[in-house]
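Table 4 source record.
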Amino acid sequence: MPTALRAVPLALAGVLLLAACGTESAGAGAGAGAGGPVSAGKICPSDPQYGDLSGAGRATADAGRPSGTPSPLPVTPSEDGEVRITGLYAWGPDSGCGADWSADYEITNDRAGAVSYTITFSLTSSSGSAVDSARRTVDSVGPGETVKGTVVMGSSTGSSAGVSGVKVLKVRSVPDDEAPTASGTCPKSGVHVYADEGDAAMGLRVVGLHLVNCGTGTYELNGFPEVEPLDEDHEAVGEVKVLQGASTISTGLGDDTARPLTLAPGEAALARLAWRNTTEFGDPVNAPYARIVAKPGADPVTVIPELDLGTTGKLGVGPWTKDTTRTP
């Protein structure tokens, strides 16, 4: 596959994909001056030898990967330093890759236990505005482990926005023993617990909590999940009042009567988190995480609903109800 050169910035826009890369260090390469061309290697970012675009593995990069030449464009590390951008590359139209840009990053877990990360990347224009962004989940990074990956931008769709840099916009992390799951191997608890993307309208936020019985027996629920808002340091946010009933936030959110549920294998339940992001007097409260206990004695699961509670100080929690949209 031919090597391609491309001057920066370019006029492009596209869809960001994310890839897990190998454990090799990027080569130092020859530095490129600002505004100069960036060299692309012989292997596409989508090539299995380069990295697994599904994010399932940590494939070792082939020697034909991008050269490791440092990015000639400014990059911004995450605030906590766990995620770093290590290179930015351009892929030519003749490369056959179907990608215009790729940016290498690495994560180092300096914590005591294994952690799963959710990272939001942003490509920026010369004016500093965001051209595009995407989120990447990297599962189970062990203590002291460094994992490398790649952010990939696809073929141009004709936008006139010029890319001038890439940065880490936001990093969220959850200890592996509290990580949410929506599918895959059934946890020892016998249930998958996760949060959806939610809905926002006129300042009202509603996020669904989902529980799926992935075990072999029935699973009993009766009442409300226990919800504990957490700040960016995973500390409890004590100034938030957690109320039973989503209707305590908005009367249009339906019945909040708790009823006993028996979930057969494959069946699911749903509970809702509701809040308003109204800001008046005082400091707004943001709680990116929420620790969920589905019922007394259940294993906790930490989800990332991004609770922007404004100055309201209230979070409404609905009861578990049968999720009739999901069939075993």
